[in-house]
């Protein structure tokens, strides 16, 4: 079950572009989540105009503001800030904006705490997610354990098996010589998970293309 976000404006922006950042079919680094969660009162926030700009052009937003997501702007204090602050520690820079995309298994933005089930998901959107992973430009795809479990339950990702240990800190769900699907810790973790998150962030940063 989930609670859809009440903002008609946010839903209208999310409809034609059910992702955040670069186009998931054209990005090199693809981060798959459960649902895109926003503060209930985001329309009353001074960050709402920035959020609209972001959904209209995520790559341009990053280049203009120097941060990858409006949740990192000082004017935003709602849900999702911790996730994106931890993500920022990887070290992606504005010049990497065309390479990075976030896509969720749920097709609409949400509010509050949600526990998704397969019945919440739409097949056409799962097929879109699957296409982004298996036939898009992505070379590095990242799933948390919770995301991978729901993907398996949906039956829409027959290639997805259990993660196997690799030589580094990122276990691998799938690899075909072109793309690799990694297991990572959800970026909302904190406390005892900090050290592991830092190690995994360094491993993701090592995948960045060399300058020049």
Describe this structure as you would to a colleague.
The chain has 212 residues and is an alpha/beta fold. 31% of the residues lie in helices and 12% in strands. The chain is built from seven helices and six strands; from the N terminus they run H-E-E-H-H-H-E-H-E-H-E-E-H. The chain has a six-stranded mixed beta sheet with strand order 1-3-2-4-6-5. A hairpin with a 4-residue loop joins strand 5 (172-175) and strand 6. The mean pLDDT is 90.
Q: How many helices in DSSP terms?
A: 7
Radius of gyration: 16 Å
Mean pLDDT: 90
Measured by DSSP, the beta-strand proportion falls in 5-15%
| SSE pattern, N- to C-terminal | HEEHHHEHEHEEH
Low-confidence stretches: none
How does the SSE layout of this entry go?
Blueprint: H1 8-14, E1 19-21, E2 29-33, H2 48-56, H3 58-65, H4 81-88, E3 100-104, H5 123-134, E4 140-143, H6 145-154, E5 172-175, E6 180-183, H7 194-205
Parallel strand pairs: 2-3, 2-4, 4-6
Antiparallel strand pairs: 1-3, 5-6
């Amino acid at each position: 079950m989930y609670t859809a976000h009440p903002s008609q404006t946010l839903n209208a922006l999310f409809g034609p572009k059910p992702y955040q950042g670069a186009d998931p079919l054209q990005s090199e680094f693809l981060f798959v989540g459960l649902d895109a969660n926003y503060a209930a009162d985001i329309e009353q926030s001074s960050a709402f105009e920035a959020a609209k700009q972001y959904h209209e052009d995520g790559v341009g937003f990053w280049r203009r503001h120097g941060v990858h997501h409006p949740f990192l702007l000082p004017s935003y204090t709602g849900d999702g800030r911790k996730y994106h602050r931890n993500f920022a520690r990887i070290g992606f820079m504005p010049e990497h904006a065309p390479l990075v995309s976030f896509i969720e298994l749920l097709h609409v933005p949400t509010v509050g705490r949600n526990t998704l089930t397969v019945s919440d998901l739409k097949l056409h959107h799962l097929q879109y997610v699957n296409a982004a992973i298996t036939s898009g430009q992505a070379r590095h795809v990242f799933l948390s354990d919770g995301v991978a479990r729901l993907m398996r339950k949906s039956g829409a990702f027959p290639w997805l098996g259990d993660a196997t240990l690799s030589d580094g800190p990122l276990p691998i769900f799938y690899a075909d010589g072109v793309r690799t699907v990694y297991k990572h810790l959800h970026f909302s973790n904190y406390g005892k998970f900090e050290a592991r998150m830092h190690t995994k962030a360094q491993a993701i940063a090592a995948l960045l293309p060399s300058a020049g």
